[in-house]
Structures are given as C-alpha cells and as structure tokens.
Amino acid sequence: MHPPSSPAVALDRISIVYGGPGGYEAVAPTSLAVAQGEFVAIVGPTGCGKSTLLNAAAGLLKPASGEVGILGRPLAGLNGDAGYLFQQDSLMPWKTALDNVAIGLEVAGTPRPDALARAAQWLAKVGLAAFGNRYPHQLSGGQRKRVGLAQVLIRNPKILLMDEPFGPLDAQTRLIMGNLLLELWAADRKAVLFVTHDLEEAIALADRVVIMSSGPAATIIGDHAIDLPRPRDAMEVRLDKCFHELHHGIWSQLRGEVLKAYQGTAA
Amino acid sequence: MTELSVSRPKLIALQVLVAVLLIGFWHVGSSVPIFGVYILPKFFFSTPGDVAMRIVKLFSGTMIWKHLWITLTETVLAFVIGSVAGVVFGFWFARRPLVAAVFDPYLKMANALPRVVLAPIFMLWLGLGIWSKVALGVTLVFFIVFFNVYQGVKEVSPAVLANARMLGMNERQLFRHVYWPSALSWMFSSLHTSVGFALVGAVVGEYLGSAAGLGYLIHEAEGVFDVTGVFAGMVILAAFVLLVDAVVTKVENRLLVWRPDAAGRT
Ligand SMILES: Nc1ncnc2c1ncn2[C@@H]1O[C@H](COP(=O)(O)OP(=O)(O)OP(=O)(O)O)[C@@H](O)[C@H]1O
Ligand SMILES: [Mg+2]
To answer: Which residue from B213, B63, B66, B64 is spatially nearest to B137, judged by alpha carbons?
Structure first.
C-alpha cells in the first residue's frame, strides 16, 4: 500500500498545451497537492483551466511537462483510484438510473443482482430511491447530478474529482446538495478536488480554497486555508463571522482575475 | 416542432375524410359523365368499385397469399442481411479510421449508383427466384444501416465515453455498454426507412423479372393493360406497407424507451 503521508493527488509543475507542441497553453506550470482526506476547492474565472486541471488529475489528459502523482506513485494512463463527476451530462442515456449507478460495480465483476441491490442503496442515499427505473432524460438536472454522484461513489474511490457538480442547480438545491456531499464525505473522508465558480460554496465546503488566474497560461495564484469548524452546515456556516472575513480576503484577490478574464474575452 | 393539438378520434376522422374525398372524386370522374365526357376515363383509371371487387376476388383465391408471402420473405431477408452487414461494417469502419479513409470514395460511388441498374445483373447472377430481389434490397438497406451505425459509434458523447472509462470499463465493456447501444439507437432511428427500402428492393426486383410477388402481380396486369388489376395491386401493396410500418413502430417504441422523443409517443 501507499504510505499514509503521501498526498492523494500531487500535481508537480504540470503544464497543459492543447493542439500539440506550439499549441494553446491552457495551464502554465502549476503545482497543487491534495492530502489524503482533504477537501480542496478550486475557484477561478470561466475558461481558466479548472476542468483541464481535473482532467490531468484523472489521467484523461497528459501534461506537456511536469508529473502527476497519485497516492505516492506517478500516474500513467487513467487514474483508477479516482471517481470523476463531470461538468457535462455523462450518464448513459440508454440505461436507467439504477443501471447507471450499478454499472461501475458490474464492470468490476460484481454479480448483477448484488450490484443492483447496492445501487438501490446508493440511490436512496442521494434521495432518489423512487427514481431507479427512470431514464436520464426523465430526471431533472439536479436529479441527474445526484445519480452521477451515486454512480461515482458506489465504487468507493479514494479520490473524488468533482467539476462544478452543482453547476446547473438553483441556489436552494445547491445548499441541499452541499450538505449531502459534506455528509457523505464525513463518513469516510476521501480526498476531494472540487471545482466551482461559486466562492461562497467553496468556502462553505472546503478545507482549502485555491484560486486560479485567468487564462491563457493559467496558474494557481492563491491558496487559502479555511479553518471553519466541522461538522459544518452549508447554509449556517455562511452566517459565521469568520466566513465573511475569509470571503472578503479571497474575493479581493479573485475579483481582479475575473475582470481580467472578462476583458480578455471581450477584447 | 409544433405540438399536434387535435384529439386522436378527430385526427382519424380527418384522415378518413381525405380518403373519402379522393375516392369520391375518382368515382365521380370515372363513372359520371360531365357534359358527355368522363374526366377520368375508365380505360385509363378504372373505377373504385371495380378495384374493390377485384381485391375481394383476389383475396377469395389462394394465389394472393402466395404472392404476399414471397414479397414478405424477400423484404425480411433483405432487411436482416443488409442490417447485419451494415452493423458489422459500420462498427469496423468507425473503429478503424484508416479503413474508413481508404474506402470512403468507393462507398460514396457505390451509394450514388442507382440500384435499378443492378437488378438485371443480379438476375443474371442469382436467377429469377427470390435471391436476386433480396440482393437488390440488401444494396439499399446496407448503406442506410451502415451510415447510421458509423455515425452512432462516432457520435458517442465524449463526456459519456470519458465517464465510462473512468468507471473502469475496458474496450470490450465500452463496446457493450456504450458504442453498441449508441449505434443501435441510430440504426433504429432509421428503421422505417430501411424496412421501406427492403420492400422497395423486393417489389422493384419482382417488377423487373420474376414469377411471383406483388411486383410481379402489378407487372403482369400492366402487360395486358388491365388497369383495374394494376390499381388493385397498388392498393394491396399500400396496405401491406402500412401493416409492416405499424409493426416497425411497435418494435421501435419497445426498444427506444430511453429516448426523449420516443417517450412521449403512443
Ligand atoms: N479540447 C480543447 N482544445 C483546445 N482548447 C481547449 C480544449 N479544451 C479546453 N480548451 C481551452 O482551454 C481553456 C481552459 O478550459 P477549461 O475547460 O479547463 O476551462 P474551465 O476553467 O473549466 O472553464 P469553465 O468554468 O467555463 O468550465 C479554455 O480557454 C478553453 O478554450
Ligand atoms: Mg470547466
């Protein structure tokens, strides 16, 4: 096994270039470590390279330079220790919610009846016990995200990569989902790399919030420890005085980048 | 698309009305002289009554069932063989870009060829029995299924594919759980077209040279200027097409329940 001290995810000066050498450098050499059991949120202006960074941690993208270490070993190929909740809809539309959740176990060799039984339990955990035989198009955006969460968590990955998992949801549902995530995470403390564009959400959920600069050649320009006590409630924590101080400090840094990104696309 | 806002009985009533009007016009034109002339002379257009009587007469004999059976057999064989070949080649080409690139111009050429010109060659090769008709149908069905399966494999959403990989699927499992269902859905979306073309292949083949089938029936009637027989054959063919299409719709709704557009349909 891996030594307990090695970080779950260690991005070591990775840079990512789209379109081969001489192409578009989305991410300039960037380092980021996520300790085991740590919840890290990445915040940054749109198009800066947050998804790109997660894809590198998942092994879906090969960095042009630098190395990705997973649990102390260099990553080659896909990251089998990670579960990845994608930004886009990625459920298989031809499978029911139940089959979508069960598939991760099935392909790993679990007999189908057992896989289905466990999948039903997971659907119940995300509050969708009654929706097992619905197809993705018969579910709301938030329900689809919850099925996706169950689909990823049922495989019990050591590392959880989440790309704006609550992106298309309304503010109230985001709070409920945030609490659900905190509850599930508290149960076995996976390492989490969580991308969001909502700074308040990042502070409410994470142990650390890192800020990315606007692209091209984006990199991490801020790393803020969030020392709010746990267990937290995603809603109530926002009323905390420390929350406001943290928010104020991080926002003053983030605002500049968001403006730069906006001017970059507007120009 | 705009939603259909009439109730089902009303829709059927309107559809029947169209038929009644058409047949009524046909009947008046062919049987009632207007200022001494028939707009639709009997010799060229027959009359609805005669055609109906001919159909009844045909169905009181046993030969018609044999013709229908032959045409159905040819259609089914053409559809099955064309589909299997289309699926196999569609997958192969989609997963092997080099093969696809090499054969691309030849496929386009073959697909642009009017199939009717092939009919005599098939008869030369395969004789006047059912297989020359099946071959004609296959050349039509194959390309439809081939292009749809190819598209289905190519157009799998990258997010769904990446997700499936991250969930631990190997190549074989990807095939079974991702590529195959996607390709199948594209293939079934063209089911009406491909079944229709299988039937066209069979009937055209029979028409051009055979001793049985609906196409032969029509051709034979045409040979002796038996317009009533031609129309009777056409009506039977049309009813046959509707029947086959209804079966296809049933199958389609069963298999594509997961699709947003299929779900609302009844
Ligand atoms: N396949 C690709 N080819 C070329 N450029 C790409 C590709 N994918 C992303 N990019 C570019 O890389 C940059 C970073 O993209 P990325 O998707 O990582 O942004 P993001 O931070 O996740 O944005 P958002 O918050 O909008 O999801 C963008 O400028 C984008 O245009
Ligand atoms: Mg993104």
So the answer is: B213
Q: Decide: A237 and A204 in contact? Cβ < 8 Å.
A: yes
Q: Residue B134's pLDDT is what?
A: 93
Give the SS3 label for residue A20: coil
Ligand 1 contact, A104 CB (< 6 A): no
Inter-chain residue contact A86 with B164, CB threshold 8 Å:
no
> ipTM of the assembly?
0.88
pLDDT value of position A3: 56
Give the range of the structural domain holding residue B76, as residue numbers without chain letter.
46-263
Q: Is the peptide bond before A111 cis (omega within 30 degrees of 0)?
A: no
Q: Based on the fold, state whether residues B118 and B229 are members of the same structural domain.
A: yes
What is the domain extent for residue A253?
9-81+157-266
**Per the domain annotation, does A115 fall within a domain?**
no
**Residue B245: which CATH number?**
1.10.3720.10
- Per-residue pLDDT at B78: 94
Overall average pLDDT of the A64-86 stretch: 91
CB contact under 8 A, A60 and B162: yes
B200 close to B139: Cβ distance less than 8 angstroms: no
Which residues in B lie closer than 8 A to residue A132 (C-beta atoms)?
Answer: none
Domain at A184, CATH number = 3.40.50.300
- Dist. CA B31–CA B39, nearest whole Å: 9
Residue A21 has phi, psi (to 5 degrees) of -55, 140
**pLDDT tens, residue by residue, A157-199:** 999 999 998 877 788 888 888 998 999 899 889 999 999 988 9
Question: Terminal CA-to-CA distance of chain A, rounded, Å?
Answer: 51
- What does the DSSP 8-state code read for residue A76? -
Residue A2 predicted with pLDDT over 60? no
The structural domain count of chain B equals 2
**Residue B189 to chain A, least CA–CA distance (Å):** 14
Are residue B182 and residue B201 in the same domain, yes or no? yes
pLDDT in tens, B120-162: 899 889 988 889 999 999 999 999 999 999 988 888 999 999 9
One domain for residues B224 and B111: yes
